[in-house]
Design goal:
With 219 residues, the protein is an alpha/beta fold. The protein has one domain: Vaccinia Virus protein VP39 (Rossmann fold). The protein contains 7 helices and 7 strands. Strands 3-2-1-4-5-7-6 form a 7-stranded mixed β-sheet. It starts with 10 loop residues before the first helix and ends with a strand. 33% of the residues are buried.
Length: 219
Amino acid sequence: MHYINKATDPKIEELKKDFFSSLNSITSHDPELRKKKGIKILEIGVGTGVNFQYYPDGSHLIVVDPNPHFAKYYDENRKKFPNIHSEEILITTGEEMTGVADNSVDVVVVTLVLCSVGDAHQILKQVVRVLVPGGKLYILEHIKEFNPDKYWIRSVLQEFLSVSGIWPFLFDGCCLNRDFHSALDSAGFSKVEAEKFYVPLTKLLFLMIKPHLKAIAVK
């Protein structure tokens, strides 16, 4: 669902800029990066790199994506951000990112990815594994309607479009009826700050994904 960006609604850029702003205050666990005031970021489901613009100068990136064709477009976009260093590109899923070492990254970023993965719980276990002690997960995902009494039409449509397979077929496996709050709580983080909210999307097609979850979880 990475097509949900500033091109589809300018308010998304403002929202994400605010969400990622605290990345600038993170100190790396790696002594060499710390000297350079850089941090190591792992992004799962990076796609073409729509989040690059929010990363601090000196960020070192490890990226994971199961699409074998993404690397070319990722590389083209990365060249627009010379302040970011690409360390490694892994063609695999978040559930199987065994190529990332234990306790090796300062930050993990997951945005609009868990809606289409096979096992969100397993991905979050992997996230805990690769984060350094005190490292942070930044997660921004659309979720199932959390106020079904008020927005019952959206709730019913989300369930129907997901269970029928219509929405996953149209949008690359994306499901509308998932909620990741419980998975975050059970993943083994020491602290989770999460908020459910409605993204200010205005286009009719995107009304199904207005309910969102944003969270910062600390290992």
